[in-house]
Amino acid sequence: MRKRNDGGITAEEIASAVGITTVSARRYLKLFQDKQIVACDLIYGKQGRPTYIFRALQ
Q1: From edge to edge, which strands make up the β-sheet containing 9-10?
Q2: Of all helices (H) and strands (E), which one includes residue 39?
Q3: What phi and psi values does residue 9 have, to the nearest 5 degrees?
Q4: N or C: which end of the chain has fewer CB within 10 A?
Q5: Reduced to 3 DSSP states, what percent helix, strand and coil does the chain have, rounded to the nearest 5?
Q6: In this predicted structure, what is the pLDDT of residue 22?
Q7: What are the residue boundaries of the structural domains of the chain, listed by start?
Q8: In terms of CATH architecture, what is 9-56?
């Protein structure tokens, strides 16, 4: 997995690296976010849905 320049990673990148679906990756990342293990930032592009960028808090 490669980190982005901002130090985070997308759910899609995690899912691809570990061989699970993006939906499953988001589900686990949401659980980790609730337990304050990761933080989530939204990146808005010019069009379409925002991209969620996750980064470890520890």
Answers
A1: 9-10, 51-56, 38-43
A2: strand 38-43
A3: -150, 150
A4: C
A5: 35, 25, 40
A6: 94
A7: 9-56
A8: Orthogonal Bundle (1.10)
Q: Residue written as tokens 């490669």? A: 2
Whole-number CA gyration radius for the chain: 11
The pLDDT-based confidence of 54 (bands split at 50, 70, 90) is very high
Structure tokens at 54: 């996750």
Residue 39, token pair as written in the block: 């933080």
Positive or negative: CA dihedral 12, 49, 24, 26: positive
Q: Which residue has the higher pLDDT, 36 or 7?
A: 36
6-28 burial, b at 16+ Cβ within 10 Å, e below that, comes to eebbbbebbbeeeeeeeeebbee
Q: Which two tokens stand for residue 33?
A: 């976010």
